[in-house]
Amino acid sequence: MPSKIMEQILLEDIKTYGRHRGNDSQYGFTKGKSCLNNLVTFYDGVAASVDKGKATDIIYLDSFKAFGETQGPAPRSGQPQYQYRLGSEWIESSPEEKDLGVLLDEKLNMIQQCVLTAQKANRILGCTKRSVARRSREVILSLYSILMRQHLEYCIQLWGPQYGRDMELLERVQRRATKLIRGLEHLSYEDRLRELVLFSLEKTQGTPYCSLPVLKGGL
Q1: I need a surface site. Which of 8, 45, 148, 217 has the fewest CB within 10 A?
Q2: Quick one: which H or E segment has residue 116?
Q3: Alpha-carbon distances, residue 21 vs 14, 16, 29, 35 (angstroms)
Q4: Which domain holds residue 90?
Q5: How many domains in the chain?
Q6: Are residues 193 and 117 in the same domain?
Q7: What is the DSSP letter of 165?
Q8: 86 within some domain
Q9: Pairing assessment for the beta strands 96-99 and 89-90 based on DSSP bridges
């Protein structure tokens, strides 16, 4: 119990410090500033710099190791002809990096992010197919919305597919998931969506979760 009380005290102190000492660029522990806000704000600035023809590099400092372990300078992405160092350590160049879960390459291209997102959701779908015996509408839709759809729509306002082939990669996940529902296997994808009161991912792109029906009773 004392440890829980101490955790709550520390949490409140951190929040208070963030509110009073933070600035417009502060997103951690700040109310109303999500990962999406952080990414959009940051990459708007990067894109504006690139549009002006400026040489632009991004240096990522890995704070994951800040508590307990140490590691060398984090990779950077951008112009490979420029070299940087922190102290005596040279920072290696990387053509792509993950930023808050979104993969971005040196050309600000999001194609690989679409591929990785579809792969992750398909792995979860495959596990669901192998392990869930009861394939009623309530069970499959609940698992899909909780375990898979969140990956398909995480910060999609930033990396939303620009090409039909990339959109199809994501759409295929929902197509396979709805086909798992017992009694709907024989219907076409469009008919399954109408029956389940769902929309295609292409139509809901940029409006996460709004198309998922509210299920009563849960699992």
Answers
A1: 217
A2: helix 111-131
A3: 10, 8, 11, 20
A4: 46-95
A5: 2
A6: yes
A7: H
A8: yes
A9: unpaired
